[in-house]
What does this fold into?
Amino acid sequence: MTDAYHQLLDAAIQHLESLKARGVRSVPIDPANLTALARPATPSPSRSRPESPAPVARPAASPATSLFAAPSSLVLSPEAKAAAFADLRSRAMACVKCTHLANSRKNVVFGVGNIDATLMFVGEAPGADEDQQGEPFVGKAGQLLTKIIQTMGLKRNEVYIANVLKCRPDTPGQSAGNRKPTPEEMQTCIPYLHEQIDLIKPQVLVALGATAVEGLLGKTVGITRLRGNWQIYRNIPLMPTYHPAYLLRNQALSEKRKIWEDMLAVMEKLGLPISEKQRNFFLKG
It folds into this structure.
């Protein structure tokens, strides 16, 4: 089997074990998908395989009792979804996988917003303000992000905001400033974000800044080349754009317009109404 197959299988098993731990005893599955799973795999034409006996027909399992549904097809009741999110939060809040981060943090910054949101923003990691308050994007960059969300015609509590890393990267010997999270730190922490995405099921993801894009997509090419170009992450359209902190450093209308064009594309993808005033923001008169 391919590496992709084993990665998918491991992810499915991990997801099902998580559901079992939360008390879920059955998962609905589409009968057509169940039939497809029962079919023998088609051998790759590039490899010769020894002949095997014809598969023995098995009775189809009842969809109501099957535990093997693709995670993306799982639909929880509002109560079960809230309970699953609460369980995920409690596990993240108690996490000590990165000992150096657990020892230096003031708060785990889990995420904030509507767990039924159609739009989800993902940043790289908490800064000092976020670590202090336990909420993502509350400093100057966060205030600008809130303004961007409002300019889109939405409210901050209508979207969901999270980071790849849930703890502020430690800065030993420094009294101020932040540092970029390491690939190892992001790799260790990102399963929490994956569970958040899988539970929320947003229609669109927005990656804020180069480090967030690197953590999500593994791409280290410049954000200047990636921004504005749709990507796919966990089967969800993802828009890479500049981090709001970039606009705090560069106040040029041309740069503000670039981020706004990305948000217009997001609004179009979500089917949100766009006024002429919104379309013309940051354009020179």
